[in-house]
Amino acid sequence: xxxxxxxxxxxxxxxxxxxxxxxxxxxxxxxxxxxxxxxxxxxxxxxxxxxxxxxxxxxxxxxxxxxxxxxxxxxxxxxxxxxxxxxxxxxxxxxxxxxxxxxxxxxxxxxxxxxxxxxxxxxxxxxxxxxxxxxxxxxxxxxxxxxxxxxxxxxxxxxxxxxxxxxxxxxxxxxxxxxxxxxxxxxxxxxxxxxxxxxxxxxxxxxxxxxxxxxxxxxxxxxxxxxxxxxxxxxxxxxxxxxxxxxxxxxxxxxxxxxxxxxxxxxxxxxxxxxxxxxxxxxxxxxxxxxxxxxxxxxxxx
Length: 302
Ligand code: COA
Ligand code: ZN
Hints:
Bound molecules: coenzyme A, zinc ion
Number of strands: 8
Strand order of the largest sheet: 1-2-3-4-5-6-7-8
């Protein structure tokens, strides 16, 4: 039983930006440990050209492995039809598409305008038949962009509405950690008033230390699905200055301490962190709760 869904995106958002490569077998062990800790949704990789992001070259094998873990929804990112077809072949349960609201970032990341990217997601949605994966349109750089600066909120709303026309779910992503809680409240409220429950996920980066504050603001606006990355790994290689996601261990601690059930066991989550460190020993990891330990007498939400 859980009140919020935390999707671990470390194997994708984290490893795409890590300085070191994690061997395939180590990725499998880590994902297994995450599942054992109670993570019910894991973004295990992306289907992008291996030349562009070598760390994602083994995503097909990783998806196949993650599918053997009971009760785990296996998510993969894909930017174009070719990647989506690979995700279909591998058997991903859900595919996320990055649709940047910043024109500059969209062109740097996927070499398409936001409009072209929406059309590409539409093509993928039209290719689906019964039993095929869910599709999520993630409006990235929704709160600002290191290349372009300000991103107009009207543009975010426009893209979210377009994506809601053929996606199962829409998420708002703060790709470069520009968001603040007031902005989060305002934008989630505006988008929710346009597309209702199709607005599901919040994806925050902790680049300026506001990751948890933004997650709490989104929760107060009714958001119940959050991306997070173990050890605060993460960042988009095509967005200068991007750094790690909101830290899974700290986000789980915040919710559990508030009495909000995550379905995740913190001790087992720390055990999964040890498995991550073993597989990626030279990569710097972050996390306040993992370093400080749980408060004396701490009890998880019942
Ligand atoms: N940055 C630099 N070079 C890029 C690039 C990018 N974002 N995207 C493509 N290229 C290169 C290709 O490698 C190719 O090089 P080559 O001619 O030397 O082989 C050339 O540009 C032409 O590419 P094209 O055929 O138009 O596209 P593609 O199919 O190779 O790549 C995407 C297009 C959308 C698949 C690719 O840009 C991509 O995967 N982007 C997503 C990156 C990502 O995962 N970002 C983080 C997650 S949001
Ligand atoms: Zn991200």
